[in-house]
Amino acid sequence: MDRSTPFQELYARCVADDDEAAWTELIRRFDPWVATVAHNALRLLDAGRAGIEEVQDLRQETWYRLLRGNRR
Questions:
Q1: What does each of the 72 residues of the chain score in pLDDT, given as a tens digit?
Q2: What is the reported pTM?
Q3: What SS3 state is found at 43?
Q4: Residue 72 · residue 15 · CB < 8 Å
């Protein structure tokens, strides 16, 4: 699995095969985006909750729910 793998193939490998390398690449590509969205959501909802710990918690919860939700 490398950086040139198209998203559709990467996603299919994550879901169908539970491919650890595919998950690693998916997280590498999208974790910065997930962290940014978490920060912006917390900032908009409650400016006092947009600290680093809260953003990290929401980021981890997002990935956890993806994995727990049978990767859907």
A1: 678 889 999 888 888 877 888 888 999 999 999 999 988 888 888 766 668 888 899 999 988 888 776 555
A2: 0.74
A3: helix
A4: yes
